[in-house]
Amino acid sequence: MMKRRPNYLAGFGSLVWLVLIGLPLYVMLAATLQSRPDYSSNGPLSWPKHFTLSNYTQDFSNGFGHYFLNTLLVTLAVVAIVLLLIPPLSYAIVRNQGRTTTGVFRLFLLGLAIPSQAVIVPMFYLITKAGLYDNLIGVILPTAAFSLPVCALVLTGVMREINSELYEAMAMDGATPMRTFFQLVVPLSKGGLSTIVVFSALQAWNGFLFPLVLTQSDSSKVITLGLFNFQTEHGIDVPGLLAAVVLSMLPIFIVYLFARRALVQGLMGVGGK
């Protein structure tokens, strides 16, 4: 039996990847666990000699908790809109192959070619005229709208993998389209549903352009805008800033940790198998 030769190139590539990913995470975590004077004297690569969590507590005392809640509210609202609209839309597109549904699907796909920067001026005009400027609703609506095309594309692809014989079996059992949707399609599309939840949550949580243009007051700020508060006339509070970055990463990391398997299945288009 021939022995497999070790793949040195793959090992070297893995080592490079580990350094590129691990070093910034190490620098970020080490900075958050030491005071600003210690960070300035020890340098960014040094591990803290005296651990402290004051950067995290100070972030919340400086209003970061409010930005966190605003971002969480926007994210939950965007995910709710996506889950309310995309599953029935994708189901209708898959089961009805008429011109109307095909045209609607192509219209959604057209949104993939339109960057948010291209419509920010008319979007600002519409939001202002609707009286939603400097309101979280004015951030939620366009963020959800730009999440819909990708979510429709992903979930439609997943639902098309469901065997047509299962639909026929449900029809022979006397199931209505709504019953078929909830008892057959939704359970077999968990991978795709997890994918669109994670994608839309990422879009909302990391959103920057719409909150920047469509909000103004401190009460409407989200995390991505709140990070600017760490830059003062005396410089940048690097440990405090990186502590805020760590806190902003945790929710999405936790969501991905629990949904990673279903997320991979949805991206591979095998949610119905």
From TrEMBL:
InterPro entries: MetI-like, MetI-like_sf. It comes from the Bacteria. Keywords: Cell membrane, Membrane, Transmembrane, Transmembrane helix, Transport. The keyword Translocase does not apply. GO terms for biological process: transmembrane transport. It is found in: Cell membrane. Pfam families: BPD_transp_1 (PF00528). This is Xylobiose ABC transporter membrane protein. The keyword Lipoprotein does not apply.
